[in-house]
Write a structure and sequence with these properties.
Layout: H1 12-28, H2 31-40, E1 48-51, H3 52-58, E2 64-67, E3 69-72, E4 82-84, E5 87-88, H4 90-98, E6 102-104, H5 106-112, E7 119-122
Parallel strand pairs: 1-3, 2-4, 2-7, 3-5, 4-6
Helix pairs in contact: 1-2
Length: about 120
């Protein structure tokens, strides 16, 4: 009987991001980074895509949010937020910046906040 091949990401940037998150989780004893790495390790079909309307609904001014996948531009943001995600659509980036928010990578978020405190997970 043949064993099924384990599905895993082949995108080199995604693989590096997952490794970096797992390393940060271990070094900083922060479970949030491990949880994000597990979400990004899922198959592309199971990875989440979050619209700006959802981010706007569940955040307040100047909060930091980690999205477990890609940020899409449907909806709008009416307050400044810092959003960390693996990928952003062009419209999402422009709308976040128009609201005086920031789009950052997970590595930038880890450097800024190694313990992951006060970071909301959406996804």
């Amino acid at each position: 009987m043949k064993k099924m091949k384990q599905a895993r990401p082949t995108n080199p940037e995604l693989v590096d991001a997952i490794r970096y998150l797992e390393k940060a989780a271990h070094e900083n004893k922060a479970a949030i980074w491990r949880e994000i790495s597990e979400a990004l390790s899922k198959t592309r079909r199971k990875r989440t895509a979050v619209n700006l309307s959802k981010i706007n609904r569940y955040t307040q001014k100047d909060e930091t949010v980690a999205v477990l996948g890609k940020v899409l531009g449907a909806g709008s943001v009416d307050h400044p937020v810092t959003v960390a995600a693996f990928a952003f659509s062009e419209s999402a980036v422009s709308k976040i910046k128009r609201a005086h928010g920031k789009c950052i990578t997970f590595s930038e978020l880890i450097k800024k906040n190694p313990k992951g405190s006060n970071v909301k997970l959406i996804g």
